[in-house]
Amino acid sequence: MQRTKFGDMACSIARTLDVIGEPWSPLILRDVWVGFTRFEQIQADLGISRKVLTERLNHLVDHGVLERRPYDQRPRHEYHLTPKGAELVDVLMVMAGWGDRWLAGEAGPPVLYRHHACGEISRVDLRCAHCGEPMHAGDVDPLPGPGASTER
């Protein structure tokens, strides 16, 4: 059975899922973001097979989300977020906020975020880029954009 090609859909969510929709990919990005940049570190933290980790890292590098940087005389590499990858971490922070609110239970969130600008522990808050007001699903009307499919 052929897998659906999400990257070919005229939908930004589907195209994003084509890059990071496989369950290991967001966790790999999280690990790289927090400082696990070497293959062995990521593998040990996630308990992922070498084969799957190699495939996922190659996929993320091919899509420009991670970059490889040599760190040893032998052909060994570290993985670092590209600007494209750093923006995807913003998406992961929103996902973490949802998980903190709805799934953390009595123990509370497993990770706290200290904002560099003010030094305070905070959470991600979606705001309108124009007026600064909170922006959530009930606050917007989805409208066709210039890249919309004429079939929909």
Provide structural commentary.
- There is one protein chain.
- The chain has 152 residues and is mainly alpha-helical.
- The protein has a single domain, classed as Winged helix-like DNA-binding domain superfamily/Winged helix DNA-binding domain (Arc Repressor Mutant, subunit A, Orthogonal Bundle), CATH 1.10.10.10.
- Helices cover 41% and strands 9% of the residues.
- The protein contains 5 helices and 4 strands.
- The strands form 2 sheets. A two-stranded antiparallel ribbon has the order 1-2. It has a two-stranded antiparallel sheet with strand order 3-4.
- The radius of gyration is 18 Å and the shape is globular.
- The relative contact order is 0.10.
